[in-house]
Write a structure and sequence with these properties.
The chain is of the alpha/beta class and about 240 residues long. It has a single domain (about 1-240), classed as TIM Barrel (Alpha-Beta Barrel). It has helices at about 15-30, 45-50, 80-85, 95, 105-115, 135-145, 175-190, 210-215, 230-240, and strands at about 1-5, 35-40, 55-60, 90, 120-125, 155-160, 195-200, 220-225. Strands 3-2-1-8-7-6-5-4 form an 8-stranded parallel beta sheet. Helix 1 (about 15-30) runs parallel beside helix 2 and helix 1 (about 15-30) runs parallel beside helix 9 (about 230-240). The chain is globular. The protein starts with a strand and ends with a helix. It binds 2-phosphoglycolic acid. 2-phosphoglycolic acid binds near residues 165, 169, 201, 203 and 225.
């Protein structure tokens, strides 16, 4: 299975969300070997879910609270996400790590999601571009540690080097990405989790998408800005997918 999806973050309007999801549904009927997904801003998750209906497009949340019990204003609980049948929940995005998600919080979030058996997209990645292979390995070891406690939830990993994300990001070389994905797969195999798929994200666009997707170790792409229109979503997907 090849995974292709987007995180629309917080600024994209409702009309664009609707047209991206409609296009993703159309693509899902043409490409059987692909699992598409969209992570809209929270107030739009239910609406996009109803647009997608029974099409093979997952719709999920960009975040979850680390505290399911108790009342914490402004948070989204794992039990609510279960109730609305969120297909996927992202944890550990670099922009959330920069705000408030430290390793302990991420581990707690994973436990909440595991209790509800919700599918997880755990984002990992090194902060600095020049980290050596060994330094990267250490970073990934630490960031992947919390999945040891996950027993019920399906897990996907998105490898997103922090320095490659967003408008200030520098697209990574495919060789560098390939090396990182190999390290990640080795750690997952040591953890007994060869079932876990690993996607790549960080300034993915229609010019570089194929260079990443054709890596043996790359199970899919996780795209931001370049997929924030129906045409952009389709174009990046079509240039990346050769299956
Ligand atoms: P980008 O975003 O493709 O715009 O760099 C990726 C992400 O933040 O996941």
């Amino acid at each position: 299975m090849f995974y292709f999806g987007t995180n629309t973050k917080q600024g994209l309007d409702r009309v664009s969300h609707r047209s991206i999801s409609t296009r993703a549904c159309e693509l899902s009927t043409q490409y059987q070997g692909v699992q598409f997904f969209i992570l809209p801003t929270a107030p739009l998750v239910l609406e996009i879910k109803s647009i997608v209906g029974k099409n093979r497009v997952w719709v999920g949340s960009q975040s979850v609270s680390a505290m399911n019990q108790g009342n914490t204003t402004g948070e989204i609980s794992a039990s609510t996400l279960k109730e609305i049948q969120s297909d996927l929940v992202m944890v550990g995005h670099a922009e959330r790590r920069a705000l408030d998600e430290d390793d302990i919080t991420i581990a707690r979030k994973l436990i909440e999601l595991d209790a509800e058996k919700l599918r997880v997209l755990l984002c990992i990645g090194e902060r600095d571009r020049n980290e050596s292979k060994n330094q990267r390995e250490e970073v990934f070891q630490n960031q992947l540690k919390p999945i040891k406690n996950i027993e019920r939830s399906e897990i996907l990993i998105a490898y997103e080097p922090v320095w490659a994300i967003g408008s200030q990001g520098i697209p990574a070389d495919a060789d560098y990405v390939g090396q990182s994905l190999e390290i990640i797969k080795k750690i997952l195999s040591d953890l007994g989790r060869i079932d876990v798929s690993v996607l790549y994200g960080g300034s993915v666009n229609s010019k570089n998408a194929l260079s990443y997707s054709q890596l043996d170790t790359c199970d899919g792409l996780f795209v931001g800005r370049s997929a924030w229109s129906a045409d952009g979503f389709e174009e990046v997907f079509k240039t990346s997918y050769s299956g």
